[in-house]
Specification:
mainly beta; 284 residues
Length: 284
């Protein structure tokens, strides 16, 4: 189970995040990787990014089309990760692999990754982004050289008394990120894990991310991300989040990601857990 965010979204430098994507090869399709600090568990966005980078090793000329990840258990930030890639298929147009991340005998995530090579259009359309606000007008974290994000209309997902619709616009970019396909996909996937639980909480008075891991038990259960266009993670993107359903201790969310010029570059869906915190709980 991935912990999404605690009292506020995680803030890290771009260099720190890139450091976790510098996988160390320890055998054929086997790697180790480090974690970001400053959090009680390993951030799910980091695990998504590492899974993408691992899957693309040895698949030159391809990018990830879709990654589907299940988070059965939370990872410990004070222990390195072991990453295993099992190749299912490799062709000229498509490749697929399973990526498993563990710590010792503890399974942290397992991902199914579909990769493809670019082809010319036969048909093309996309959903309309609608009018796009300016990222400069969105308050949030804008530290130079870091993961930057801003909330459209000043939305607050932390304060339990800040009530709004189950929708959330988040501008995001990674200041100083290199413009290459693998890094772009890895960094954008990092950002997608952080906001849908907060989006689901918005309509409910007295519920907010300030209560996560204090009075509420929250976490990402599964996450599916599909890329449509190449990604330059150093540029601004708008994540248009919505949560159509929450109930039975679970929440469902989805989002489209638009470039600043209105192009649809990626989409994702997420299943999560939101329930009262139970002391001495040992699992889901």
């Amino acid at each position: 189970m991935s912990s999404e965010t605690e009292r506020k979204p995680l803030v890290h430098t771009t260099a720190d995040i890139l450091g976790t994507l510098d996988l160390v090869e320890v055998g054929t399709d086997r790697y180790t990787a480090t974690n970001l600090g400053g959090h009680g568990v390993v951030f799910g966005g980091q695990l998504l990014a590492q899974s993408i980078v691992a899957a693309l090793r040895g698949n030159d000329g391809m990018t990830v089309k879709t990654i589907h990840t299940v988070f059965p258990r939370a990872g410990r930030p004070d222990a390195d990760l072991e990453i295993a890639v099992d190749r299912m298929h490799a062709g000229r147009s498509f490749a697929s692999s399973t990526v498993t991340i563990t710590q010792g005998d503890r399974l942290i995530t397992r991902s199914s990754v579909l990769m493809d090579a670019a082809e010319d259009d036969m048909i093309r359309h996309q959903t309309d982004s609608g009018p796009l606000s300016s990222p400069d007008a969105a308050p949030g974290s804008k530290e130079p050289g870091g993961w930057q994000f801003g909330f459209v209309d000043g939305a607050d997902i932390v304060d339990p008394d800040a009530v709004g619709p189950a929708e959330l616009g988040v501008w995001t970019r990674f200041d100083g990120a290199p413009n290459d396909p693998v890094t772009g996909q890895g960094l954008l996937s990092f950002a997608t894990d952080g906001f849908l639980i907060g989006t689901a909480m918005r309509p409910h008075a007295g519920v907010g991310q300030a209560q996560a891991h204090v009075t509420l038990s929250t976490g990402v259960l599964s996450h599916t991300l599909t890329f449509h266009e190449p990604i330059d993670a150093g540029s601004w993107f708008l994540m248009s989040n919505e949560s159509p359903y929450a109930g039975h201790g679970r929440a469902y969310g989805r989002a489209h990601i638009f470039a600043a010029d209105g192009r649809l570059v990626a989409s994702f869906v997420q299943d999560s857990m939101i329930r009262p915190l139970q002391k001495n709980s040992s699992g889901l």
